[in-house]
Write a structure and sequence with these properties.
493 residues, single chain, alpha/beta, binds adenosine-5'-diphosphate
């Protein structure tokens, strides 16, 4: 598994959660995974011990020859080996990709180097690789190098490649002269392969050359084949639609477990939520300075205050509802200063009804997941999303916009048959509009207030879903098998 980040070594986003959790679960299911990532300063000082392997290699980067070294560590709590590619000029830096909101200017060079290092490491370590699982644009060159440069060496001929897209909005696009860094012939710099509107696009390169492609939810896999979520690559993705699939990420069911969560005022499970959840709600209302009232619906949001997360819809609906509706709101997040100001103002104007915690707090996130009745995720797009799965586990009913992973995990309770909950485990809507969110939230609040039995059935449905990594890893195991078959049949480029 080639990745630019993995928990606990280095993390900037959800990619690190996947590459930190999936290998351990694959190993438990009988696979033999290994992880390879850059030896960033953060990775070397993350508290996990590592040792140098005494293996050095030299690769061409443009007109230079660059040396790297391999370190070895273990993924905590597992037998999985993690190889760290050491190259201090590229990776011994404060951050992973840039500082002060600016990317490092040599990011293309850094990850071209890393991609070459991965292929060299396979040879030097004599690793018997069936599938090279690449992730995001940082590893996009790997499938291309395999097909263009390494195809004549027998050791590499049977390696199949899977490229996972964690968020298509980040593509690794660089000016055309960076082609020289790759060492790949200019003839590949065309609209069918590595070029994208005059620039070098590393994600596109990976999408063209990988044997299989997947995203972190089945619905997102469909959505990115069209505009606008295809972010310009919809044509390439349509062309490769036969090899694209989606696998939902899992959640850490030990860390997010209401039955044993040390952050909560009371612990509970699917059989005892009627006792435990009200205690958590009351404690949360007290902690946040909200009016303590068991009957008023408490609506929660946790996440980046960014338009991707639908924060503009939430802001709009709150302003309409606050003067008249008897509903409480808790928001935990950081992001756009405009929303910091707005939510602070609303919290000042409606102190018993609105709590805005504009910070990052993991313990409070756990208490909101347990104490809220309803969890909001009206995202504009959502490759997978985690909070809706945490909400299910904590018996907090999600209200979501039906997109990406939210569409795959949340089954709407329809209005039509008010007495049958069936398999519903939340409320969802399609239109990205304040009106659609407001209507759906009204439906949820109505069921909460007027049909307590149905609400309890919804909670039971939520809490019974299996969002563990074990489920996800089984699907990856099947996809690896398919990928090997595809590579053998030459289905790729
Ligand atoms: P993203 O697009 O930001 O990766 P996800 O829903 O996939 O969205 O995951 C976000 C993760 O970060 C969740 O675990 C969420 O609880 C956590 N998170 C986001 N903002 C905060 C915050 N302010 N405080 C605590 N946890 C947060």
């Amino acid at each position: 598994m080639a990745t630019s980040e993995a928990v606990p070594f280095a993390k900037t986003g959800g990619l690190a959660d996947v590459t930190g959790a999936l290998p351990g679960e694959l190993a438990r299911q009988g696979h033999e995974p290994a992880v390879i990532m850059p030896a960033y300063r953060k990775a070397r000082y993350c508290g996990v011990t590592h040792r140098p392997l005494g293996i050095n290699f030299i690769v061409p980067i443009g007109s230079k020859m660059v040396t790297g070294h391999l370190l070895e560590a273990r993924m905590p709590g597992t037998d999985v080996t993690v190889y760290l590619v050491e190259q201090d000029h590229y990776f011994d830096r404060e951050q992973l990709y840039g500082t002060d909101g600016k990317d490092y200017v040599d990011n293309c060079e850094r990850f071209v180097f890393f991609s070459r290092a991965v292929l060299e490491a396979i040879r030097l370590l004599d690793l018997p690789v069936d599938v090279l699982h690449c992730n995001d644009w940082q590893t996009g060159m790997i499938p291309a190098y395999l097909k263009i440069e390494y195809q004549h060496q027998s050791r590499y001929q049977d390696i199949a490649t899977l490229l996972t897209i964690h968020n298509l909005a980040y593509q690794g696009t660089f000016w055309h002269w960076d082609m020289l860094l790759t060492g790949i012939d200019w003839k590949y710099f065309n609209w069918r392969e590595m070029e994208f509107h005059g620039k070098l696009n590393l994600l596109k390169t990976g999408l063209v050359y990988a044997d299989s492609i997947n995203t972190v939810s089945p619905q997102y896999a469909e959505e990115i084949q069209n505009s606008p979520l295809g972010c310009g690559l919809e044509g390439v993705l349509q062309h490769r639609r036969d090899v694209i699939s989606g696998i939902l990420n899992g959640i850490d069911t030990h860390v997010w477990n209401p039955a044993a969560d040390e952050h909560l005022a009371a612990n509970y499970d699917a059989d005892s939520f009627t006792l435990g959840k009200p205690i958590c709600k009351q404690a949360l209302q007290q902690e946040l300075g909200l009016k303590v009232d068991a009957d008023v619906p408490l609506v929660g949001f946790i996440g980046r205050l960014a338009e991707q997360k639908g924060i503009d819809l939430i802001a709009e609906v709150m302003q309409r509802w606050l003067p008249s509706e008897d509903v409480q709101w808790v928001l935990l997040g950081t992001g756009d200063p405009k929303y910091h100001r707005l939510f602070r103002t609303l919290a000042d104007r409606f102190p018993g009804k609105v709590a805005a915690r504009l910070e990052f707090s993991n313990p409070l996130a756990h208490r909101i997941e347990s104490g809220a009745d309803i969890f909001l995720m009206p995202s504009r797009y959502e490759p997978c999303g985690l909070n809706q799965m945490y909400s299910h586990r904590y018996g907090t009913v999600p209200v979501v916009r039906s997109t990406g992973g939210l569409a795959d995990t949340v089954t709407n309770l329809p209005d039509a048959d008010p007495d049958t909950v069936g398999v519903a485990n939340g409320f969802s809507f399609h239109d990205y509009s304040p009106m659609a969110l407001s209507d759906t939230l009204h439906r949820a609040c109505h069921v909460y207030r007027a049909h307590r039995d149905r609400w309890s059935d919804l909670i039971r449905n939520c809490m019974s879903r299996d969002w563990s990594w074990a489920r996800s890893a089984r699907e990856y195991g099947e996809l690896y098998e398919k990928t090997v078959d595809r590579a053998r049949q030459g289905v790729g480029v």
